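Handout, section 3.2

Students often ask what a structure token actually looks like in practice. Rather than define it abstractly, here is a full record for HTH araC/xylS-type domain-containing protein. The first block is the sequence as you would receive it.
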Amino acid sequence: MAQGKSHLNGVIKTPVDGVRLFRDPTGCKKQPLLYQSGIIIMLKGSKRLYIDSREIVYKKGDYLVLGVPLPAECAAFTDDDDCILGLVVDVPPSLLVELTQLTPREASSARPTFTVSQQSLDTTIADATHRLLAAFTNKNKALALGASYVREIIYHVLNGPAGYVLSGLTENGHYARVAKALHIIHEKYATSLNVEQIARDVNMSPSGFHRVFREVVLDTPIQYIKKVRLAKARERINGGERVSEAAEAVGYKSVSQFSREFKRYYQFTPLQDKSSEIA
């Protein structure tokens, strides 16, 4: 890897709020990852995403839409490119509501229930993406026009074949209620969460909540909470925190239990992960 480009690797903030670039010079084998909701536009390389028994391939020229944060496994490949490069666009709830009102609605019964969709870029999304990328070269231009390009991208995604993944979040159905439950989990994952209470908070019965949660997230609520805690702890450990500090910060009372569950999920210990980041 060229020394001069090392500072460009990883997740890179852009001048536009809610927009990030990610760059990986080598790729990686399949490993657990917590995907955030939003739109991912692949610029170079390819990725294989594994969620439950499903496999989704998205590559240069594709985009991926995720309605909710999902634990998954991911493998990345440079293919014939010099790196893996992608653009991540958050979808602000207020903007989503506004744009959904301007988008023709599809009958709910006709929509798929899966909350991830991979599609090929069409001309409208590709053009808006190119304008957004070009704006990054000039901070003033990015600040002046970046938000309008983001708005254009989200609008065209809503009007495309993956639009249902986002528009369903603005309705009052089971999908939107599970999304609200996930918001609660991501805000309070470090506390003693009670699944039955979360179900009540989103106006669902515990049995109905468990069933619909599994349909939307492809995981049980307890397993989802555990994966979120482990992912957040891993971020802390790789950011320099001690294992015991990270475990406590995400809600574990026992460091030994945390280490066992971490190794079971990631296939290596927290200390091995930390040493690999330093190397």
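Discussion prompt for tutorial groups: The domain at 173-278 is CATH 1.10.10.60 (Arc Repressor Mutant, subunit A). How would you have guessed this from the sequence alone?
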